[in-house]
Write a structure and sequence with these properties.
This protein is of the alpha/beta class and 821 residues long. Among the domains are: 2-91, no CATH class; 136-228, Alkaline Protease, subunit P, domain 1 (2 Solenoid); 273-329 and 461-724, no CATH class. It contains 11 helices and 26 strands. It has helices spanning 31-64, 73-81, 245-257, 301-362, 364-397, 402-425, 428-516, 521-536, 589-615, 619-654, 711-758, and strands at residues 2-7, 87-91, 120-122, 125-127, 137-138, 144-146, 151-152, 160-162, 167-168, 174-176, 181-182, 188-190, 219-220, 273-275, 282-287, 540-543, 558-561, 586-587, 662-667, 670-674, 682-685, 696-699, 769-778, 781-791, 797-806, 811-819. InterPro entries: Coiled_stalk_dom, Pilin-like, Serralysin-like_metalloprot_C, YadA_C. It is found in: Cell outer membrane; Cell surface. Belongs to the autotransporter-2 (AT-2) (TC 1.B.40) family. This is Trimeric autotransporter adhesin YadA-like C-terminal membrane anchor domain-containing protein.
């Protein structure tokens, strides 16, 4: 830019008291400089003008009628000095006059102002640098440094430093304020002395938020020890907006309000949760707990109800069976007495047969005469055998009926008496032979009846043992369920206390962050939002006693598990509950699994009992003693269950002392009442009425060893065990029936052997010998007999040796001697 010409004009834009040149650039010349420049020009011009007028111009101008040359530069100089208006023409770098409508493009290496002062831009002027001002330094072309000693470093592209001594050392940083400093890229320091201390962070965790986060940079409004408050901040509405103290206080108030209705741990050990209902608290919506040896799930009321129903049914069945067993035992005792009498009668008849055999030996002379009669008698015996066989079939048909069996025994006894009379009427040898045959048949019939009775007794005793074992298993299951119910609550209460402790620490962090207000303001609001979400998602809370699902703002008799869906919720990490008469502890799946293991053991015991019955019928007496022992055990278990019920009631009555949560810690020596928040290994449910029990509902199926089981799982396990046990018992009884059938057929074969031996003839001559053979058949079984007999010289003594073998491959021998008097 240059100044082209100087001329006085009525519309000049500069005056001596103001800058001479005032173009759009704002550049100006001091009036003294103008007068100096013009003064140096005026004198030479005036000298030239005088010479020209005197030598050339004056005659010429006079001839032409024109005035002499007079530039009057001195007057112009005086006018400038006196402050008259002065106009200058400004040329651009190309020599063109700059007008008011042209663009103002000014180039210079720098500008220095004479008077030192603070930098000011305004009122159409820039002031304050001065000749001795401290230089600002911008290290990159796109950087800005504005203020005394303001600086941006080399490499800090896009950096802005505004304010005295402000500095930016990293790209895209902004420092605004006296001494403000930014040492991290893409970060901002606002206010005098503010500094950045963190910058962009990758993969960091934020209190109260899940996952990791990345930040682009930092905004600081202070420095360590010189923090500032951000005031007049509007409440945030989006997840990344800053939150105000009012919003945070609202969240804190909401958390504080939860103290009256939330379920919390008693203390920092997370071992006990005490419910605060004045009369106990019902925990509803508990899903069915898992039933296995490691389950700590709580079981719900439906599970326990089903078990109680089964226990009651079994108790009724035990009572009814006990009466029936007692009656059977009496009947068996009576029949045993009658059988004993019959056995005595048979022994007496056997003596008579022996006597008759001796008499037959003495009837040598009459044998020939009676041979025909014997042959006829043999036919009659055959007929009698057929009749007796038919009668035996009728007796077999009525074996299961004790009364009919009694009638048959009476008839048989009458038949024996009648046959004895008929034998007496006939010749002695015929009568004796017929009596012996009748006696054998009666013995066989009685033996069959006694075997049938033994089979029935064995079956009845096995049934009673099975029922007793099942009753014991069911009672143990109920106790285990009670333990799981209490233990399952412990894990959930521990989680709730941890959540509340975390909320408290997060609130404290939020308060500190609000005081420090830096780049974490945005994260605080997000954390508060998550806090409110977590508070709303407390998994266990009081609900209406009527429907068991509607949330209640005050303690009630019912608490419910709240899941993501409407279905039941799994309660895991439940400690093993106390097993006592007064315990109201939740039992877990591992406890119920142990019961199922006991059921399996009972099945093994049933198998052993069945084997014992099969191998030795004499074990009936031992089983009867075992039944009495089992009955005693059942009575003891029933008493234990009653004691457990009392203990549960006692624990529930103590729950009235809690006012914060439904599940609370208690002490081992006083498990019914909350211990005031001291962490222990005991937990109790506290409802509105301390004397009423508290239900735990909506317990989900247990999936791990320490989960609580629900009633459905427990019942399914019991049903499966019972089904397996019943199937196994049926199989064993089928085997018993098969084995007894073998015994029955073997007894028939033995009877056939007895008949064969009884059919052997013997020597009837003095000093004689005889080899004899015979065959016997009874109810489908056959036996063969061979015998040797010899008589003394006088015929008064007879010796016999007999052997037999039946179709089962069993052999037998007998020998005897008789002497006549």
């Amino acid at each position: 830019m240059g100044i082209s010409a100087l001329a006085m004009s009525s519309n000049a834009q500069a005056q001596s008291v103001t800058p001479v040149v005032d173009v759009c650039t704002g550049l100006s010349l001091d009036p003294s400089l103008v007068t100096d420049i013009v003064g140096e020009t005026v004198q030479p011009v005036e000298d030239i003008e005088t010479v020209l007028n005197g030598l050339v111009l004056s005659p010429l101008l006079s001839a032409l009628g024109l005035p002499v040359l007079n530039s009057d530069l001195s007057t112009t100089l005086d006018n400038i000095a006196n402050g008259n208006q002065l106009a200058l023409t400004v040329l651009d770098t190309d020599g063109n006059i700059v007008t008011s409508s042209d663009a103002c493009n000014v180039t210079a290496d720098g500008y220095t102002l004479n008077q030192e002062a603070g930098i000011a831009i305004g009122g159409n002027s820039i002031t304050g640098l001065g000749a001795n001002g401290l230089d600002a330094s911008a290290g990159e072309l796109d950087a800005i440094a504005f203020g005394n000693s303001a600086s941006t470093s080399v490499g800090a592209t896009g950096a802005i430093a505004i304010g005295a001594d402000s500095s930016v050392t990293q790209a895209d940083g902004v420092a605004l304020g006296n001494g403000a400093s930014v040492t991290f890229a893409n970060s901002v320091a606002i206010g005098a002395g503010s500094v950045t201390s963190r910058g962009a962070v990758s993969g960091y965790s934020s209190p109260g938020l899940a996952g990791t986060f990345d930040s682009a940079g930092e905004v600081s409004v202070g420095a360590p020890g010189a923090e500032r408050q951000i005031t007049n901040l509007a409440p945030g509405t989006e997840a990344t907006d800053a939150a105000t103290v009012g919003q945070v206080q609202g969240a804190l108030d909401a958390v504080a309000a939860l103290d009256d209705v939330a379920v919390q741990y008693d203390d920092g050990t997370y071992a006990t949760v005490t419910l605060k209902g004045a009369s106990g608290t019902t925990v509803t919506n508990v899903a069915d707990g898992a039933l296995n040896d490691t389950s700590t799930d709580a079981v719900n009321g439906s599970q326990l109800f089903a078990t109680n129903q089964n226990v009651q049914v079994n108790a009724d069945a035990i009572t009814a069976l006990d009466g029936r067993v007692t009656t059977n035992e009496t009947d068996i005792a009576n029949l045993d007495g009658r059988v004993t009498v019959n056995e005595g009668d048979i022994a007496a008849l056997d003596g008579r047969v022996t006597t008759n055999e001796t008499d037959i030996a003495n009837l040598d002379g009459r044998v020939t005469v009676n041979e025909g009669d014997i042959a006829a008698l043999d036919g009659r015996v055959t007929t009698n055998e057929t009749n007796i066989t038919n009668l035996d079939g009728r007796v077999t048909t009525n074996e299961t009926d004790i009364a009919n069996l009694d009638g048959r025994v009476t008839v048989n006894e009458g038949d024996i008496a009648a046959l004895d009379g008929r034998v007496t009427t006939n010749e002695t040898d015929i009568a004796n032979l017929d009596g012996r045959v009748t006696t054998n048949e009666t013995n066989i019939s009685n033996l069959d009846g006694r075997v049938t009775t033994n089979e029935t007794d064995i079956a009845n005793l096995d049934g009673r043992v099975t029922v007793n074992e099942t009753d014991i298993a069911n009672i143990d299951g109920r106790v285990t369920v009670n333990e799981g119910d209490i233990a399952s609550l412990d894990g959930r209460v521990t989680v709730n206390e941890g959540d509340i402790a975390n909320i408290d620490s997060r609130v404290t962090v939020n308060e500190g962050d609000i005081v420090a207000i830096d780049g974490r303001v945005t994260n605080n609001e997000t954390a508060i939002t998550n806090l409110q979400t977590q508070v709303a998602n407390v998994p266990l809370g009081y609900v209406d006693d009527g429907d068991g699902t509607t949330p209640s703002s005050s303690p009630t008799q019912t608490v419910a598990m709240i899941g993501a869906a409407a279905g039941p919720v799994t309660l895991t990490n439940v400690a093993a509950g106390s097993l006592s008469a007064t315990s109201s502890d939740a039992v877990n799946g591992s406890q119920l699994y142990a019961t199922n293991q006991q059921v399996d053991q009972n099945m093994t015991n049933i198998a052993q009992n069945t084997a014992d019955i099969t191998n030795n019928a004499n074990d009936i007496a031992n089983n009867t003693a075992n039944i009495a022992t089992n009955a005693t055990n059942i009575a003891n278990n029933t008493a234990n269950i009653s004691q457990n019920t009392s203990d549960i009631q006692l624990i529930q009555n103590n729950l009235a002392g809690s006012t914060v949560v439904a599940v609370q810690y208690s002490d081992a020596d006083n498990p019914r009442y909350s211990n005031g928040g001291v962490i222990s290994q005991d937990v109790t449910l506290v409802g509105l009425d301390p004397n009423a029990t508290v239900g735990l509902h909506n317990v989900a199926d247990a999936v791990s060893d320490f989960d609580a089981v629900n009633l459905r799982q427990m019942q399914a396990g019991i049903d499966a065990a019972l089904t397996t046990a019943n199937a196994y018992t049926d199989m064993r009884f089928a085997e018993i029936a098969f084995d007894l059938d073998d015994v029955r057929r073997a007894s028939y074969a033995g009877t056939a052997g007895a008949l064969a031996v009884s059919g052997l003839p013997q020597v009837i001559e003095s000093d004689g010998q005889m080899m004899a053979g015979a065959i016997g058949h009874y109810r489908g079984e056959t036996a063969f007999a061979i015998g040797y007999s010899a008589s003394s010289n006088d015929g008064r003594a007879v010796f016999k040796f007999n052997g037999t073998v039946d179709t089962h491959g069993y052999a037998g021998v007998s020998t005897g001697a008789g002497f006549a008097f």
